């Protein structure tokens, strides 16, 4: 049987995911802020620890992607290639270095959902919308001073977050929270449902072939709403640090297993 992921068949054509490399091109709106003291630490399992500088910094990120495998065939069938996501990223300290870590994320594609679980992202399904910049006409902001953007994420028929962003000008970077390689856990409970895991790995995932468009900085607002199936109140913003918008391209070729929790 063949295929990178399930379902595996003789031909492998039905597999939900092609084997890496995976290529991404997209647009990202990032709102950085500080949560309540101890909020980030409460979401970091041992041996991860908060960073010493701004330990409760969080990035709320909206992204619209076009993604494909090595053949690029998805690009001619756009329903397979395009999706949106919203994620909350924090920083953590492990083995003497700083990492970025996604603690909550929603996507609107089953392929993206499973691809994220493979990489250690805790993806759930949701509805994500974000303003697109316009090159002509008046039905969208320009990438220039005064351009205004909005973004929302909902899940389970409830709005979870909404953001507004107004460009002040260009910047050298698009923030600091999501600026490190990702450090995630890949988890799968045992089929016996006895409280033990059959998969418990600490993994890193870094991008290659990174291409960055101009970064735009501006004023931002972020609102978080309660939900019976989410825990976003623990990361509600106390102080917004700023907002950023940028086009990004990169390649995912695979990650690295740092530790296996089942080995003690």
Core attributes:
single chain; 264 residues; mainly beta; Acetoacetate decarboxylase-like; eleven-stranded mixed sheet; three-stranded antiparallel sheet; 1 helix; 4% helix
What does this structure look like?
The chain is mainly beta and 264 residues long. The chain has one domain (23-253): Acetoacetate decarboxylase-like (Beta Barrel). Helices cover 4% and strands 49% of the residues. The strands form two sheets. Strands 1, 2, 3, 4, 5, 6, 7, 8, 11, 12 and 13 form an eleven-stranded mixed sheet that branches. Strands 9-10-14 form a three-stranded antiparallel sheet, with helices on one face. A hairpin with a 2-residue loop joins strand 7 (148-155) and strand 8.
Compact overview of the structure:
This protein is mainly beta and 264 residues long. It has one helix spanning 110-119; strands at 22-34, 57-68, 82-94, 97-107, 123-125, 127-130, 148-155, 158-171, 182-189, 197-205, 208-212, 215-224, 239-252, 256-260. It has 1 helix and 14 strands, in the order E-E-E-E-H-E-E-E-E-E-E-E-E-E-E.
Number of individual domains: 1
Largest sheet: 11 strands, mixed
CATH class: Mainly Beta
Global structural class: mainly beta
Rg, nearest Å: 19 Å
Shape: globular
CATH second-level architecture: Beta Barrel
User: End-to-end span in angstroms?
Assistant: 33 Å
Helix-residue proportion:
under 10%
* CATH fold descriptor: Acetoacetate decarboxylase-like
Tally of DSSP β-strands: 14
- Average pLDDT works out at 97
Count of helices? 1
Strand content: over 45%
N to C succession of SSEs? EEEEHEEEEEEEEEE
Poorly predicted spans: none
Full CATH superfamily name: Acetoacetate decarboxylase-like
């Amino acid at each position: 049987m063949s295929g990178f992921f399930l379902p595996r068949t003789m031909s492998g054509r039905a597999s939900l995911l092609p084997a890496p490399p995976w290529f991404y091109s997209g647009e990202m709106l990032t709102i950085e802020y500080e949560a309540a003291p101890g909020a980030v630490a409460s979401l970091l399992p041992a041996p991860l620890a908060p960073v010493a500088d701004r330990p409760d910094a969080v990035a709320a990120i909206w992204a619209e992607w076009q993604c494909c495998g090595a053949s690029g065939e998805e690009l001619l069938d756009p329903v397979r290639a395009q999706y949106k996501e919203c994620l909350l990223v924090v920083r953590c300290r492990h083995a003497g270095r700083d990492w970025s870590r996604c603690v909550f994320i929603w996507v609107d594609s089953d392929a993206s959902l499973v691809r994220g679980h493979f990489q250690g992202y805790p993806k759930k399904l949701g509805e994500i919308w974000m303003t697109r910049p316009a090159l002509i006409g008046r039905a969208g902001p320009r990438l220039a001073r005064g351009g205004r953007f909005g973004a929302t994420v909902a899940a389970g028929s409830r709005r979870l977050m909404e953001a507004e962003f107004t460009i002040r000008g260009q910047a050298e970077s698009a923030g600091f929270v999501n600026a490190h390689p990702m450090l995630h856990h890949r988890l799968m409970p045992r089929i016996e449902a006895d409280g033990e895991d059959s998969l418990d790995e600490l993994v890193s995932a870094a991008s290659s072939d990174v291409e960055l468009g101009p970064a735009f900085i501006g004023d931002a607002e972020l609102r978080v709403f309660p939900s019976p199936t989410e825990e976003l109140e623990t990361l509600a913003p106390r102080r917004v640090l700023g907002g950023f918008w940028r086009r990004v391209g990169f390649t995912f070729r695979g990650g690295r297993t740092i530790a296996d929790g089942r080995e003690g």
